[in-house]
Amino acid sequence: MSRLARALIAGTSAATLISAPSFAGPISNDQTNDAPETAAESVQALDSTEAATGLAIAQANSATGVVLDWSQVTSGQVFTGDVRAESIIEADNVWGIATGHANAQGNALTVSAGADLDLDASQSAGTGTVSALSALRLGEYAGHAVMTAQGAANAIEVAGNDADMDLRIEQSSGTAVQTRAVIEADSAEIETSLVTASSAGNSVNAGGIETDTEVELAQSNTGAISATAEADIANADYGVTGASQAAGNTATVRNEWGYARIEGEQLNSGEVEAITRLGVGAFENGAAVGSANAVGNSVLLSNFGADAYAGVGQVNSGNVSGRVVMEGGWGHSAFATSSAIGNAQSAYICSECPVSLDANMSQTNSGNVYSGVSQTYGGYVGAVTGSATAVGNAATFSSTEPN
């Protein structure tokens, strides 16, 4: 293998790429998945137990890379068809904790860089559906319950440590993405509960420590994106939290002690919807908290210790909506927050560092934007708060303390 230690696990669905500490030649990854369906199911049906765990992960194409010296990586991923992940737990009693997680992705690329990295990555998702369901169906009692569901048509994550990273990323999707996290316990008691659902058409996360991170970005989404978090509990003793997040295109760069730059474009024409529903008979000792966040295009740049540049053009023509619906009997307190934004772009730098932030942003929204909160309680509730925010275009700039 000369001076390059490299492993490629065969198949168009999963690959692992590794470069050893020496000069690394070009690394190429090419994956195409045209299967009608890629599915993962985890079903647990039982009477009583101390702990129950369900995990389901489905990916049409998956590639993971570890870079230990300077490397050039080219990756192309294409899929059509459906991707489905379902984690279901059915029980009368879970005396400890019930945990369920479902993750569905069309194209997934993860790279860890301990040295300089040049990355050219493209991901294409055709028509079809990416769906994730995480559900708990409870008869009598659970100590704690956590249900999460995540889904993305295209997802890229790159993390660096003491590296220079030059990332050129192109993502396009016409796939519908649907995620649901559900607790069905309308005759049961649960001490604490959490349900979260998140969906994205195209997603990029990049950054590192003592790393220069430069991203050239092109994202386009036409698929419908929805995330739903639901909980129906007779007695949520110490409270319940439900949260949903949905985005057509999202890109995040978090960096420390290295130059950070992100520029390019985001185009979304798909409908984006985040819904949180909580039905709770009683929540005597804790709060019922519901939140929903929906955005057509989203960019976040955060850099500490060095200069930064943000310049992404955003165009959203899809309808965007966030809704929180909460109802129940009596309880400690209730908080509902909903937000819907056509285009959102934020940039943060360290206020105590000798650094600067340059920005050249443009935002255009023509889609309807709706945010709503509805709460109905039949008994005494100590405090009730509701907040709904709808914004066509939102740009935020801030210098913050390092911590």
TrEMBL record:
Protein name as catalogued: Holdfast attachment protein D
InterPro entries listed in its UniProt record: Holdfast_HfaD (IPR049860)
Leader sequence segment: 1-24
Top-level taxon of origin: Bacteria
Signal is among the record's keywords: yes
Keywords linked to the UniProt accession: Signal
